[in-house]
Design a protein that fits this description.
The complex is a heterodimer of chains A (287) and B (356). With 287 residues, chain A is an alpha/beta fold. Among the domains of chain A are: 146 residues, P-loop containing nucleotide triphosphate hydrolases (Rossmann fold), CATH 3.40.50; 47 residues. Chain A contains 10 helices and 13 strands. In chain B, helix 6 links the parallel strand 4 and strand 5. By secondary structure, chain B is an alpha/beta fold. In chain B, helix 2 packs antiparallel against helix 7. Chain B has 14 helices and 5 strands. Classes of the chains: A alpha/beta (287), B alpha/beta (356).
Chain lengths: 287, 356
């Protein structure tokens, strides 16, 4: 597969603070990469370097074969960026917001109405954005990031604080864009979203890459799978019992449980990306 | 720089840019100020320049001046009445035509003495001088040297307030719009984070700054010309005046872009305007009070905008007379253009944050 993003030794400092500390990674074309980390971990700075907003102090980023610093216009022409914070022209209508960016990207066959329909904003195209709800604004920002049919889409917390309907609409668009062949760079600290959507996730902590792999592989490497059973003791109290699923005597332990205890409920439990992040970095994603 | 993208951004700025108090003030305030100054002190509804004449002989000059539509001519029967009329401002200028005037104009050089009202508006002085010279040329049939020696009557130091306030009105028109429109637009975009969105599109920071600066400069130039028209000071040096004003508008825009790049919010911008106003309007204040040493004006960059404009419009000088100030103005504009370009370069890479 082609590499959409190649990052080598990328570093950025704010004075003495090293915000991004010599990170290296690659992203395949058509891949969804989750970029996970707590606030202040260096996610936004890394994305700003990848999108040409900041020039790295060391290292380089190659997007679609172009050096982001040397070929910034060529890179910008082929990427779409959706920010976490709403940054739309609120006094303008949704369709005018999209038209402005379509003109800047020189998209000749732009169909803003179709794009707005795709993000669930049909019928509200000519409303002033100031009158939109947070979810509608977020969907409009996702739409704006797609006006130039980008090869790489950077999405920064696209579903943060949204209602389930808006979140699902955005998740579906991410998957559709992946189907189209776009590479998705998803910055988030929502482990569930990352687990559900991402082919691979990168953990970033204090500017460094702590881990990078598929969620399943990370769970296998760092996590544990268990069976959690609720059993009634002789005194009538409910107790929890845990059986590791990946050990040699799992089958015997399960048999023993059912033969000796009064099992009320039993279910399997898998490590979450949050658990693994804590294990790898010693910090919580939500810090 | 991509001209197509700059045009797209200019259109967006015009049609969808902030329609806020800054825009209203940029358009309304200079017009109101110009109207007020000219209604209260000067040129609107005022009569044409008035020339008083006492003819000791029987010159054909009077008949020719009577046909002039540029001035009001008043005839006096003795010199004392003429001087009294000049002293009390009934006429702007009074001349005594010697009995042998017709012989004088055939001798080759015309020397005349003119009494001038101390508060004569500069424009009227220029108009009367021009009409007199043209009429004498016509009378003699040749371009004779005409020397008019002026004697001020009344308080010579009193300059009409319409003239005194003109630099303030013109500087206000150019610098409020030219500076505040791009500055407030940039600050709004920073606060609303839309600048960040533009910055990941193909539009470069340089193109964004150019578009905002262009809108500010055009508005500033338009408002500057409008205030001169309202003040009745736009004369035959129109193109030269527009050239100076255009350079002034560019300077104002450069200040505005720098302010917009560094200032975080509108409150700070207005505070900056209040303080910066002292620097911007310093030359106008100095001009307003002729008792002050006029060299103080030289230290302000805006002096090199307003002095040439006043020289061309009010004092009736030609482009050649203002070439030194014009050269200094061009140098100032170039220096600030380099500073703006340096800031744009830093914004485009790493040093400054775009978010307010």
């Amino acid at each position: 597969m082609n590499k959409s993003i190649i990052v080598e030794n990328l570093t950025y400092r704010y004075g003495e603070l090293v915000a991004v500390d010599h990170i290296d990674f690659e992203v395949e074309a058509g891949e969804i990469l989750g970029f996970l980390g707590p606030n202040g971990a260096g996610k936004t700075t890394a994305v700003k370097m990848l999108t040409g907003q900041l020039h790295p102090h060391e290292g380089k980023a190659i997007l679609l074969g172009y050096d982001v610093v040397k070929d910034t216009p060529k890179v910008k022409a082929q990427i779409g960026v959706c920010f976490e914070q709403p940054n739309l022209y609120e006094q303008m209508s949704a369709i005018d917001n999209l038209k402005l960016f379509a003109e800047l990207f020189s998209v000749n066959d732009f169909n803003g109405f179709a794009l707005l329909k795709r993000v669930g904003l049909a019928g509200r195209e000519k409303d002033r954005v100031a009158n939109y709800s947070k979810g509608m604004k977020q969907r409009l920002m996702v739409a704006r990031s797609l006006v130039n049919r980008p090869q790489i889409i950077f999405l920064d917390e696209p579903t943060a604080g949204l209602d389930p309907v808006s979140s699902e609409a955005i998740d579906n668009i991410i998957l559709e864009e992946r189907e189209r062949g776009a590479t998705i760079f998803l910055t988030t600290h929502d482990m569930w979203e990352a687990d559900k959507l991402c082919d691979r996730v990168a953990f970033i902590n204090q500017g460094r890459l702590a881990a990078l792999d598929a969620p399943r592989n990370l769970k296998q490497q760092y996590g544990k799978r268990s069976l959690i059973a609720e059993v009634a003791s002789t005194s009538g109290k409910i107790e929890k019992k845990e059986i590791r699923m990946d050990s040699a005597d799992t089958a015997g332990a399960v048999e023993n449980l059912f033969s000796k205890e009064k099992v009320i409920t039993i279910h399997s439990e898998e490590a979450t990306l949050e658990d693994i992040f804590i294990k790898v970095t010693g910090r919580r994603l939500s810090e | 720089m991509n001209l197509k993208r700059i045009w797209i951004l200019i259109k967006n700025e015009i049609f969808h840019g902030p329609k806020d108090v800054v825009l209203v003030m940029s358009i309304v305030m200079p017009v109101l100020l110009a109207l007020f100054v000219n209604l209260a002190f000067g040129n609107i509804f005022s009569e044409r320049a008035a020339l008083g004449i006492y003819d000791t002989g029987d010159s054909q000059l009077i008949a020719m001046l009577e046909s002039s539509e540029s001035i009001n001519l008043k005839i006096y029967t003795n010199e004392a009445n003429l001087m009294s009329a000049v002293e009390n401002g009934s006429v702007d200028m009074g001349i005594v035509i010697p009995a042998d005037f017709n012989d004088i104009i055939s001798s080759g050089t015309v020397n005349m003495q003119a009494y001038v009202w101390g508060e004569i508006p500069s424009k009227n002085l220029v108009i009367i001088g021009t009409v007199l010279t043209d009429t004498i040329y016509e009378l003699s049939g040749a371009e004779l040297p005409v020397n008019i020696e002026t004697v001020a009557l009344g308080d010579e130091s009193i300059m009409p307030w319409s003239d005194r306030l003109l630099p303030l009105v013109v500087l206000m028109a150019i610098f409020f719009g030219g500076m505040m429109i791009p500055a407030s637009s940039l600050i709004n975009e920073k606060n609303r984070h839309t600048l960040e969105a533009l910055n990941v599109s193909p539009a470069s920071i340089g193109e964004i700054f150019t578009a905002k600066g262009t809108v500010g400069a055009i508005l500033a130039l338009f408002m500057g010309i409008l205030t001169l028209i309202i003040s009745g000071q736009l004369n035959s040096s129109f193109l030269s005046i527009v050239l100076i004003m255009a350079l002034g508008a560019v300077m104002a825009t450069e200040f505005g872009l720098l302010a917009g790049a560094y200032i975080k919010d509108m409150n700070t911008l207005f505070a900056f305007w209040k303080f910066g106003g002292l620097l911007l309007f310093g030359p106008a204040v100095v001009y307003m009070f002729p008792q002050m040493p006029q060299w103080i004006g030289y230290i302000f960059p805006t002096f090199y905008v307003i002095k040439p404009v006043i020289d061309l419009s009010v004092n009736g000088l030609g482009l050649g007379s203002i070439i030194t100030n014009l050269t200094i103005l061009v140098i100032i504009v170039i220096v600030f253009a380099l500073v703006v370009s340096r800031v744009v370069s830093r914004l485009s890479t790493r040093a400054l944050r775009l978010n307010g």
